[in-house]
Amino acid sequence: MTFRPFALYVHVPFCSQKCPYCDFNTYAVPRVPEAEYIAALLTEVGAFARDSRFAGRELSSIFFGGGTPSLLSPEAIGRIVATASSHFPLVAGAEVTLEANPGHPCKERYSGYRAAGVNRLSFGVQSFDAGRLTLLGREHSPDDARRAVRDAIAAGINKVSVDIIFGVPEQETGSLEVDLQAAAELPISHLSTYALSIEPGTPFFQRQERGLLALPPDERVAEMLSFIPIFLAKHGFARYEISNYAKPGQESSHNSAYWSGADYLGIGAGAHSCVTRYESGVRVSAERWSDYALPATYMQRVTESAVSWRESLDQRALQFEFFYLGLRRTCGVSLSEFERLFGGPCSEKMRGTMSDLAQEGFLEHTADVISLTESGIALSDSVFERLAGQS
Ligand code: SF4
Fold this sequence. Notes:
By secondary structure, the chain is an alpha/beta fold. It folds into two domains: 6-256, TIM Barrel, CATH 3.20.20.70; 315-391, Arc Repressor Mutant, subunit A. Helix content is 39%, strand content 25%. The protein is built from 15 helices and 17 strands. α6 (173-184) runs parallel beside α8 (218-234). The structure holds iron/sulfur cluster (SF4).
């Protein structure tokens, strides 16, 4: 049994409409079945409170993600926070984040979320250009986003993050600069930037198949990727992960928990969980599982078990994850930390691959710490592919 704190993720799989690029586990609904869904979440959290893998442990953070969690009322959010923290005490200063659509909540709602225990909001702004928002199928306007950030802060939620998408059809680097400038002018403490990816099954995928989506060439997307950290650094935001930037001390502790390999419990339709087993302080294996993805099935099955899929990870898989997740952070990974967590050094094969990647300019290292270079960040997927299986 371990008593390390863990992170709680609460999935809210409802949106008022589905954006044409989105492949998340989320469903457009005319009305959110709030009472039924909250009852299911409370049932699930209660079940895990009796589970020896979690009982007696503290919560390091709570994250309401989606979907659009801001479709839930402050009372509903408050019930989840209160119930979760009655079973698993929140560590002092624990981050409680809610993802919000800037077009939805009215001013009073932010005060309600704050009273419910939310101390950080993450707004899916995506762009400050009205045309690009329409192209992306977003419901809100640029002014809605500005107003939402200011209203949230006026309500006392001081930690605010915004998401920006780049690599949108026909986008130039200059228009990304306009978006970043507009975001940086707001009193936010955190920014996440994501390159648009076209996922199978989405309307954007179909449009691309028919040649109706003029995505920017890879070189332009790469130029944008290099431009973002330089621009944001001038405005006080330091990159701390491939896609995330923060003012000093404002990094997301919930997301950092994932990247550092901490345990997390996911509740709600399609939510994922992972618990690592330690022997004498050494990581030896892990269990990972996810809940039924369809909200109706999830709500129906939760009284028995909402888990629809599970897998076990051996130590070798955990060692790869140590590098795969840790290298996403600009602080990189520490080889002495690896030895402490796994009871010995990493394999010769892994060290050889890392040495090759360093010679090719994708990794840099000191005696103990290895991190991605700018080129490594730009080609991180191929770097991780080469590290896979080398542990
Ligand atoms: S609001 Fe977010 S979660 Fe919902 S469909 Fe759009 S991108 Fe997906």
